[in-house]
Design brief:
single chain, alpha/beta, FAD/NAD(P)-binding domain, 2 domains, 7 helices, 18 strands, 26% helix
């Protein structure tokens, strides 16, 4: 009995969880990860607050080192290389890498993440992940009592300010555009003012602080806004562009994320799964780990049903 080959692209929480489950089921599992060549959200996080079982707000690199030890413990075949293309012929996937290698598999799991783009704010670097954050779900609780500014260009930022004001309004809460061509809804702006949220219409010119700790924001029109923390809606770059270079490009939503069945994380392509930030679900490290486990269980049950001629439930 020859068991199917399974390849997982991406070794973050989603891909690692999936590979460990499948390896424990005694499948031939290979995980391909670009490692230090491409930095995803987990590797760039300076502190992870809401991952069950982690103490002391470890940074993303520390979490990934722990994950790699688990992969080694279970003997997962780890390939440090960048995937540049994927194709499918009959029922076999072909995975092409930057180093010129070609791997074949029966099941393919896409578990690559996203790379955040810095907003166009001069001098932002030293403050990022100390005073400036992109994920309120991840970092609001630790900063809930600080003077807060939401930096955005559209209603997504206004709604984030509304959410924060609802959870627990900080001593000062402001909304500031990050560039001149912003689009704020008058209706939401009016509602925010009733919640004592300050909304500005001049973009950021300068950040004032010291050693990564923010004190205030200077706007283009000269106004100065007190702020200890900024939450900003960042842009991002998806890392699954290699799928567009072959005949195995699954269905995507309007934002470009892979559409999946959220019961099992199957994509529109038979035997291809998408887990973690690359799919159209919620982006959180702990959720990605659960998606990896769910996909692995679905693959395992599907293989058993096929092997023994049983119908899928």
């Amino acid at each position: 009995m020859v068991k199917p080959n399974i390849i997982i692209i991406g070794a973050g929480p989603a891909g690692a969880s999936c590979s460990i489950y499948l390896k424990r089921f005694n499948y031939r599992v290979k995980i391909i990860d670009a490692g230090g060549d491409i930095k995803g959200r987990t590797s760039m996080a300076t502190g992870i607050n809401n991952f069950i079982g982690l103490e002391g707000r470890p940074n993303g690199k520390k979490l990934l080192r722990k994950i790699k030890k688990q992969l080694d413990f279970y003997g997962v075949d780890f390939v440090n290389d960048e995937v540049i293309g994927v194709g499918k012929k009959s029922d076999i996937f072909y995975v092409y890498t930057k180093l010129g290698r070609v791997f074949k598999c029966d099941y393919l799991v896409i578990a690559v993440g996203l790379v955040d783009k810095m907003p166009p704010i001069e001098g932002l670097g030293p403050y990022f992940d100390h005073s400036i954050f992109h994920c309120s779900t991840c970092d609001w609780h630790e900063n809930r009592n600080k003077k807060t500014a939401i930096v955005a260009v559209d209603d997504y930022g206004l709604k984030l300010a509304r959410e924060i004001a609802y959870m627990k309004k900080p001593p000062l809460l402001s909304v500031i555009p990050s560039k001149k061509d912003f689009d704020f809804s008058k209706q939401i702006v009016s509602a925010l003012k009733k919640m004592d949220v300050l909304v500005y219409f001049s973009k950021i010119s300068e950040l004032v602080g010291r050693e990564g700790f923010l004190k205030e924001i200077i706007l283009d029109d000269g106004q100065r806004v007190e702020a200890e923390v900024i939450f900003t809606t960042l842009g991002y770059e998806r890392l699954d562009g290699f799928l567009q270079k072959g005949n195995a490009n699954p269905q995507r939503n309007d934002e470009g994320f892979i559409v999946v069945n959220h019961r099992n994380y199957r994509s529109s392509i038979d035997r291809m799964y998408a887990i973690g930030p690359c799919n159209d679900g919620v982006d959180q490290a702990i959720i990605a780990g659960g998606q990896g486990a769910t996909a692995a269980l679905d693959i395992h049950v599907g293989i058993l049903n096929e092997e023994f001629g049983e119908k899928e439930l």
